[in-house]
Specification:
Blueprint: H1 3-17, H2 25-36, E1 41-44, H3 51-60, E2 62-63, E3 66-70, H4 77-81, E4 82-87, E5 92-97, E6 104-108, H5 115-127, E7 129-132, E8 135-138, E9 144-149, H6 162-165, E10 170-173, H7 179-187, E11 201-202, H8 203-213, H9 220-232, E12 239-241, H10 245-261, H11 269-280, E13 285-286, H12 291-301, H13 305-313
InterPro entries: ATPase_AAA-3, CbbQ/NirQ/NorQ/GpvN, ChlI/MoxR_AAA_lid, P-loop_NTPase
Pfam families: AAA_3 (PF07726), AAA_lid_2 (PF17863)
Keywords: ATP-binding, Nucleotide-binding
Length: 314
């Protein structure tokens, strides 16, 4: 598989997802890049913006196992990971695996579950395994958690702690659609259904793309740019907590996957500029200012590789 094949693969997936939801082509591509990079995604948006439908359409376009967990206040960790069940036929306990044992797991309204349930996701997200009855079990590969949450109606919810937010490679914030998209929603009664979505990527395809991603070239100046950008968040005005080193690694992986899905075997600074807000917006804790405002300022202030070369030559 070549970089051009990867681009065609991304185009096919976007075409299938668009049979169910429209206006989210970039978001579908972001989810695919995140999956290839081995990350997890958090999607935020108001009710009715098709967060769940987007994830279901994305998962159906992949011939991978999929499960959905509706998070509620009465959910238990074992409802996600599984538990030991006594089997009278064999006179012993056996493992009954939970919905976490799927390639793509949708954690719907993740902030409605209590902290114990949220923490049950940490091991799965970081280690690719869960512990049941004192024994560890590996999760399928590839494995990705896509969580959704509603930024309003926060009464009775449990905000995700910073340690768990940091495990999500990207956070996507969905807004209201434009006029043309909403007109099509009113005209086409089949939109919103995933029945017409066909699987166009296999697990083997994803693993091949991951291998190909490792060969994507990132110039030393671009690597330095990523590091400088992340480090700048730690000393920026109005920031209480800057991005962690995990952010540097996440952004480095994601730009490689994004370049690949755009048919390139090399990363350009614009890839970093485009993806940095998705990787940083949930990791930068401010004193009340919108993190995206801080991130936009840093993207303007931190010299790009081209600027560095010009300054060096002068």
């Amino acid at each position: 598989m070549s970089a051009m094949d990867a681009r065609q693969t991304a185009d096919r997936l976007i075409k299938e997802v668009s049979k169910s939801v429209i206006g989210y082509e970039n978001e579908a591509k972001l989810l695919l890049a995140c999956l290839i990079a081995g990350g997890h995604a958090l999607i935020e948006g108001y009710p009715g913006l098709a967060k769940t439908t987007l994830v279901k359409a994305f998962a159906k376009a992949l011939s991978l196992s999929f499960s959905r967990v509706q998070f509620t206040p009465d959910l238990l960790p074992s409802d996600i990971t599984g538990s030991l069940i006594f089997n009278p036929k064999i006179g012993d306990f056996e493992v009954r695996f939970g919905p976490i044992f799927a390639n793509i797991v949708l954690a719907d309204e993740v902030n409605r579950a209590p902290p114990k349930v949220q923490s049950a996701l940490l091991e799965a997200m970081q280690e690719g395994q869960v512990t049941i009855g004192g024994k560890s079990y590996e999760l399928p590969k590839p494995f990705m958690i896509i969580a959704t949450q509603n930024p309003i109606e926060l009464e009775g919810t449990y905000p995700l702690p910073e340690a768990q937010l940091d495990r999500f490679m990207i956070r996507i914030r969905l807004g209201y659609p434009g006029d043309e998209v909403e007109l099509r929603l009113a005209e086409d009664v089949d939109l919103g259904s995933v029945d017409s979505v066909n699987a166009v990527l296999s697990g083997e395809d994803i693993m091949n793309l991951r291998s190909l991603m490792r060969s994507v070239h990132v110039d030393a100046s671009v690597i330095k740019y990523i590091v400088n950008l992340v480090r700048a968040t730690r000393s920026a005005h109005d920031v209480k907590l800057g991005a962690s080193p995990r952010t540097t690694q996440a952004l480095s992986k994601l730009v490689r996957a994004w370049a690949l899905l755009n048919g390139r075997d090399y990363v350009i600074p614009d890839d970093v500029k485009l993806l940095a807000p998705y990787v940083l917006n949930h990791r930068v804790i401010t004193t009340g200012v919108d993190p995206n405002v801080v991130i936009r300022q840093l993207l303007q202030q931190v010299p790009t590789p081209l600027m560095e070369r010009v300054l060096h030559k002068s």
